[in-house]
Structures are given as C-alpha cells and as structure tokens.
Design goal:
- The protein folds into three domains: about 160 residues, PAS domain (Beta-Lactamase), CATH 3.30.450; about 120 residues, no CATH class; about 160 residues, Heat Shock Protein 90 (2-Layer Sandwich), CATH 3.30.565.10.
- About 55% of the residues lie in helices and about 15% in strands.
- It has eleven helices and twelve strands.
- α5 crosses α7 and α7 runs parallel beside α8.
C-alpha cells in the first residue's frame, strides 16, 4: 500500500506549526502597530518637550545674539536626541530671517511642497504655539516651536525629526517575536513527538500488527486497550470487529456447507431432469417414427385398398356362382382368406393415422409451460439461449390432454433450439380469453433464430416436409403438432422472417370436449370393406 509523504505526526506538526506561525504573525502585526503608535507618540512628545525646553534655554542663556553659542546649543541638542537631523533658528525682529542652522551647507529646511504649507514664509509666521508637519514620504516630522522673550514671540525653532528610531524599535520587536516563535515551535515539536511516541505511535503499531495477523488468517489475535481515550476506543472497536469477523466466518462456513449440500441436491434434481428430458426426447423420436409409419400406412392403404376390394369382390362373385371343380373352390377360399388377412394387416397400419386417443382433464397451461421449459433448460443453457416467460398470475385452466400438449410445446422449443445454434432469445407468452377470440387461450413461441424462407413457410405443416439437414428430422414434428392442436379444436399459425426469427401462435379452446375434431370413423372401412 502506498504510504503518504507525511505521517500523522508530521501532519499534526505541520498544522500546529501553521497555527502557531499564524497566531504569532497576527499578534506580532497587532503588537507592532500598537507599539509603533505608542513609540511614535512618545518620541513625538519627547521631541516637542525638548524643542520647547531648548527655546527657553536659548532665551535664558542669551544665545540668540551669539550665533556660535546658538549653533553649539543646537548641535548639543542633536547629540542628545539622535532623531533630530536638522535644526534652524529664525528671528522675527525686524523681519524673520535665518540666524543659525545645523545643515553643513547652510541651507534652511526645504518646506515647499509640504501639506498645508504654501510657502516657506507662511511656515515662519509668528505663532503662539508649536506646529508639526509630516513630510510626504512619512519619514520625518517638521516641528516649529515659538521662541518667546518677555511674553513676546521673537523667533522660532524649526526641527527636522527622523522616524528611524521608531523603525528600529519595530524591527527589534519583530526579531524578538520571530525568535519566540521559533522557540515555541521547537518546544511544541518536541512535546508532540514525545506524546506520539508514547500515546499514539505505539498503540497504532500494535493495531497494525493485529490487522496484519488478521489478514494472514489469525482472527484470534487482539489489540491491547492501554488507554481510555480515542486510541483505546479504536482498539476496542478493532477487537469487536475481529470478533464479529470470526463469528461471521464460522457462520459463513456453515452456510457454505449447507449451500454445498443444496447444490448437490439440485445437481441430483438436474440429473433426474436430464434423464426425464432424454426419455421425453426418446418418446418424441418414437412419435415421429410412428408418424412416419402412419403416413406410410396411409399411403399403403390407399394404394392397396382399392385393388384388394376389387379382387375380393370378384372372388366373392366367383364363389357365389360356383366353380367347376372342388379344387378350384378350395383355391378361391384360400385366396379370400389371404385377402382378409391383408385387409386386417392394412387396417392395423391405418389405425396409426387415425385421431389420437385424447385424455381430457383440467390442465394448467402455465404449469405445463414451466415444466416444458424446465425439461428443456439444459439444452437452452448449453445453446446460451435467453428465455423470457410472460404470462399472468391468474392463468385459466383448460380441459385438454396434458401429455399431447406438452409434446407440442417441446416440439416447438426444440425447433427454436435448432434455429439458434449460436444463442439467442426465446419468448414464451400466454394470454387468457380476450375480446375477439371467444373462449380461447393464446400461446406464442417466438425466437430470434434464422427464420424460414417464404417459399417454405406454407409447407411446414405438411408431413415429410423439412428444411433441416439430412438425419436431423423426418418432417413430421409440425405435422403432428398441427394434428394434435386441430384435434383439440384449436389452430396453429406461423409468422417468420429470414434472419430475424419465427413466431408460432396457438389458439386453444378452454374446453376441448366441445370442439374436439373428429375424423370419420368409417374411413378405413369404407376404403377397405369388400363389396357384398
């Protein structure tokens, strides 16, 4: 089984690390924003206070009229406050003018383009209070502090204060938070590793060993339930699952044994069904042979009966008018006895062509169809033929001869088998009385076989006609089916299309006693009776 790139421990460490990093990053950002504001406020107020104090010192020390002393004081202030990058002093008497600046080039602060300041002179107006302007790039404050002497504003002190100290403090805070985050991650990883070794990895490996043993067939192995947490609960569930699997296997073995016994019984039934099918096929073959003999007997009776009647009549006339000698009379008697013997023999042969001796009784057509399909099931399965049975649950009972009807059904099924040597579909449908067909049941046998050519379709119910190859049929099966159905008072018809299949439709009356077809009983006597 393909393993994941990260184990459970690695995934949890990754998730915890991401959570810690996120929390620390968010908290650091918030702290930096708040700290930056506090530090900026502090530096701003300290610088304002220092500027105000410097303005008083300049007045008190009389440095305004001593440029070297004034410049020295300004440089000392920049030394004490490194954030101050430039300092300018202006006097307003008689007009405002630059007295001293710490800029090496002697240039005053460039105040043009600052927000709210239209011109340098505007910023240097006499003001009674301090004013602060932030440069557009946000890196400096420009602070203006009035210089007052005896209650009058005589000048101003302008300072350019850098915010670099604020940035340094912020970077230091970020560095400390980063180191704290790394230390926290290391401690967290160590704690999780130790916890996994003791509480997770060992029990999980124990359960994996148990599952591997179960896969090998050792269902008696159980996992150790060492804790009361989810891992211990999982081990308990695993043990209960193994117990159920063991019970299921035992039950499955019992069911397999029962199913094997049932399969053996079904095989025995199938063997008996095959034997019955074989006997049925033998009976059907015998019926075909008898039908052939009957047709031959009918032909023989027709061809021999008329000449024998003529001969018998003439012999009787000779016997009636007398003969010239006793020997001739004896010969005539011998001839007459032999003719009678031939007549009896032909009568016996002709009896096969007479109507079947039907045994009329209540018959369930559905049961008869199911039994016929069951008898033919081995051959149907061998040919890979799908059977579709379609009949209602309340199929009517009919009064007919069950044996002869089953002979018809088996004959039609066998014809479908021969028409589908490579498999196909056989549909068997049964319908009760419907409007238009009176008291008749309708049966259909439809296959998807090779079909029957149109020129052969009208001859298939004729005796001795067959389209099968030599040795596979005598051409009497459908003729016998037609005779049986007609003798029940019904009808059989066929529809077929070459390459698409054939459908036989049987119309069977519900009571064959009222519609049984009768053949003339005196047919053979009229044919073979000698004239008086």
């Amino acid at each position: 089984m393909r393993r994941s790139r990260f184990g459970l421990q690695g995934k949890i460490l990754l998730i915890m690390s991401a959570a810690v990093v996120t929390v620390v990053a968010v908290s650091t950002t918030i702290a930096m924003v708040l700290t930056s504001r506090l530090v900026a406020e502090k530096i701003y107020r300290q610088t304002l206070a220092k500027a105000k104090l410097m303005a008083h010192q300049l007045v008190n020390e009389h440095a305004l009229n001593n440029p070297p002393m004034l410049l020295q004081a300004m440089r000392q202030m920049m030394h004490d406050f490194p954030s101050i990058k430039q300092a300018d002093v202006y006097l307003h008497d008689p007009v405002h003018h630059l007295v001293a600046t710490t800029d090496p080039t002697g240039q005053h602060l460039e105040l043009d383009n600052l927000p709210g300041v239209q011109h340098y002179n505007e910023y240097e107006l006499v003001r009674p209070d301090q004013i602060t302007i932030e440069t557009p790039n946000g890196k400096f404050w420009i602070m203006g502090t009035p210089i007052s002497e005896k209650g009058q504003v005589v000048g101003c002190l302008n300072l350019k204060v850098s915010k670099s100290q604020l940035n340094a403090i912020t970077r230091g805070l970020a560095l400390r938070n980063l180191l704290l985050m790394l230390a926290s991650l290391g401690a967290l990883a160590l704690i999780i590793h130790l916890f996994f070794l003791e509480r997770v990895r060992a029990p999980v490996r124990e359960m994996i060993r148990v599952m591997e043993s179960a896969e090998a067939g050792q269902l008696s192995v159980r996992a150790r339930e060492a804790s009361q947490d989810e891992i211990g609960e999982l081990a308990g569930h695993l043990n209960r699952m193994l117990e159920r699997i063991a019970n299921f296997n035992a039950e499955l073995e019992r069911k397999v044994e029962g199913a094997t016994a049932e399969l053996a019984r079904r095989n025995e039934q199938l063997k008996r069904i095959n034997e019955e099918l074989f006997e049925t096929q033998k009976t059907l073959a015998r019926s075909e042979r008898l039908a052939v003999a009957g047709q031959l007997a009918a032909g023989l009776a027709h061809e021999i009966g008329t000449p024998l009647n003529s001969i018998s009549g003439h012999v009787q006339l000779l016997a009636r008018h007398g003969v010239s000698s006793p020997s001739s009379g004896r010969r005539l008697q011998v001839i007459e006895r032999q003719i009678d013997s031939i007549v009896r023999t032909v009568k016996q042969l002709l009896s096969w062509t007479r109507k079947f001796d039907l045994k009329i009784e209540p018959v369930s057509l559905r049961h008869l169809l199911e039994e016929s399909l069951l008898l033919s099931s081995p051959a149907l399965q061998h040919r890979r033929i799908e059977v579709i049975a379609d009949w209602p649950a309340d199929c009517p009972l009919v009064r007919a001869d069950a044996g002869y009807l089953q002979q018809v059904f088996l004959n039609l099924i066998n014809n479908s088998l021969d028409a589908m040597p490579r498999g196909g579909r056989l549909s068997v449908r049964l319908r009760g009385p419907q409007p238009g067909n009176g008291q008749h049941a309708t049966l259909e046998f439809e296959d998807t076989g090779s079909g029957i050519a149109p020129e052969n379709l009208r001859h298939i119910f004729e005796p001795m006609f067959t389209t099968k190859r030599l040795g596979t049929g005598a051409g009497l099966g459908l003729a016998i089916c037609d005779q049986i159905i007609r003798q029940h008072g019904g009808s059989i018809s066929v529809e077929s299309e070459v390459g698409r299949g054939t459908r036989f439709t049987l119309m069977l009356p519900l009571d064959a006693r009222e519609n049984t077809e009768s053949l003339p009983a005196e047919t053979e006597d009229a044919t073979l009776k000698a004239p008086a």
